[in-house]
Each structure stands twice: as structure tokens, then as C-alpha cells.
Amino acid sequence: MKKLFFLAIAATIMLFSCSKNTSDPNDPVEVRFSGNIAQLQTRVGETTWDNADKVGIFMTSPYFPSMVWTTEVEKYYANKDYTTTAGATANFFPVDGQPMYYPQDGSKVDFFAYYPYSTTIDYNTVPYYYPSINIDATDQSDLSAIDILWASAKGVDKTSGPISLSFRHCMTKLVFNISYGEDLVAPEDNNFDITVFDVQTIGQLIISQGNILPIYGIPKAEVTASEKNKIEMILPPQTHTGIAVAIEDANGDTFKVVIPDGTWNFNTIYTYNVTLKKAGVAALISGTIQPWGIGTPIDIDGFLEEE
Length: 307
Known about the structure:
The structure is a single chain. By secondary structure, the chain is mostly beta strands. It has two domains: 33-169, Sandwich (Immunoglobulin-like); 172-304, Sandwich (Immunoglobulin-like). It has one helix and 21 strands. The protein has one helix spanning 2-21; strands spanning 33-37, 54-60, 77-84, 89-94, 109-115, 122-125, 130-136, 149-156, 163-169, 172-180, 191-199, 202-206, 211-214, 221-228, 230-235, 238-240, 243-248, 254-259, 262-264, 268-277, 298-304. Mean pLDDT is 79; it is low at 1-22, 40-45 and 281-290.
């Protein structure tokens, strides 16, 4: 009898425990994220996320991406900051420890994410007043700070499960591989200073679209960088006209390269193999450009400027 009595108690406890673990369909459902970077040939020289990289995430209405600050704001989230784990595919965790939750009524939502995180959001971007952040690529000293990444996941709800975000590059990347022609002797110190003139360095990332738009009225600028043999720059996408490039070597000699009219597109890398020569006529540049990380190199000549 004692055995039967204890078995009855155990069965009662198990039934009670099971009933307590049954999930309520009305319980809030936490949003869980992971993310990878498409065309993982570089997140500015690296192939993976760093630990504690910081991204911003918006959850909005599928019909009104600007609704994150309307009367229905309690259903949505604006610029929630998440940190990443290290690796090619990272898990994201809310910085404040408070996760996002899906709308309990089961309505669908859109997610928009960007990197690197910014605390300064413009909610008055015309013409649609969608959230945006300002981009300034004038300073090329820290490329990871201006390698803008963006991802989206649309039409999901609390039944969708974990959200996998595939990030793409919003900027364009220029790579200059520099070498000396046979008519020049390379100095022992092969460090170069490069200046690209009259380029657009300022723009706005429209967070619900992933596009970087120019800010009208902002003058074009010059950008500079220094490195040995291979120099990289990151700029907003733009149509360019007659871009001049000056390359100064360790001897103090300056060489000029002219890039013809064209367009630098987002998520695209443009590689220029530059051969420095004493004199001649700068060649026009042509070539086929492929997505970021697999661009077809273009050979051009840079000629010594006459004093």
C-alpha cells in the first residue's frame, strides 16, 4: 500500500509539473537573431564578425516603416542595440538584456538592421520621414567604422522562429595595388600616400531601404590614405566624373592617375592595379566589376608629374 501511495503522489506531481510547463499561446514571444555577412571577402579586411560588434535593429509595421514612433509605438522597436558573438555567423544579444517581443496579436512585422550602431537617428528624413543615419567617409583612418552593413527580414511574426539576417555592404570599396614600372627604381621604403579628389563622402543611410543617398548641398571633398603597395578606401556609392588621383611615394615624387566617368555601386569592390612610370599619357580605365570581394582587377598607369 505504501508503494501505491507514493506512486500516486509522484504521478500527481508529474501531472502538475507538466501543466505548469505548457506554454500559453498568449505569452509574449521573444525575437531571436543571428546574422552573417554576405560576400564574406572582407568586413574591411576580416572574414568574420568580431566579438561584441554592435548592430542597431528596428522592428516596424510592414506597411508603415516610419510607425516606430506613432501612437502604436508599444508594438514596435526603434534602434534597439544588440552585440554579436564572434564568427562567420553571429548570435545577437540585446545590450540592455531586454529582448524584443513580437506583437501578441500575431500581426506581421519587418526588421531592419545595420552596422555599426549609432545613437544618432534622424527621424525627419524627407520625403517619407523614414529613420536614417548620417554617413561621413572623409576620415579613412578606421575603415571598419565606415563599412556600413545592412540587412532586413520582412513579413515575419511570432510563429517564424529565429531570424537569420544576411548583411550586405552599403558602401563601395576602392583598392589600389601600386607598383613601379621598369623605368623607375623603387625606394627601400615603399609606403605611399594617396589622395582621391572631388568625391562624395557624406550621405544618409535610409534604414528601411538599405540605400545611402547623397545629402544635397554638401560639397565634394578629397580623401587620403597611406599604406604599403595596397591601399583601400571606402566611399558612399556615387556617379563620378573625371576623378583625379595623386600618389606620392617615399621619395617625395607625385604621380597622377585619372579615373574616367563611371559609377561606383554599393556592395562592390573596384580594384585598380597602378603602375608608376616617368612619363606618358594616362590611359582610360575600363573593365567588368563583380560583387564585393570578387571584382575584376583593372590595370592603369600613373605618371610622374612635371614640376
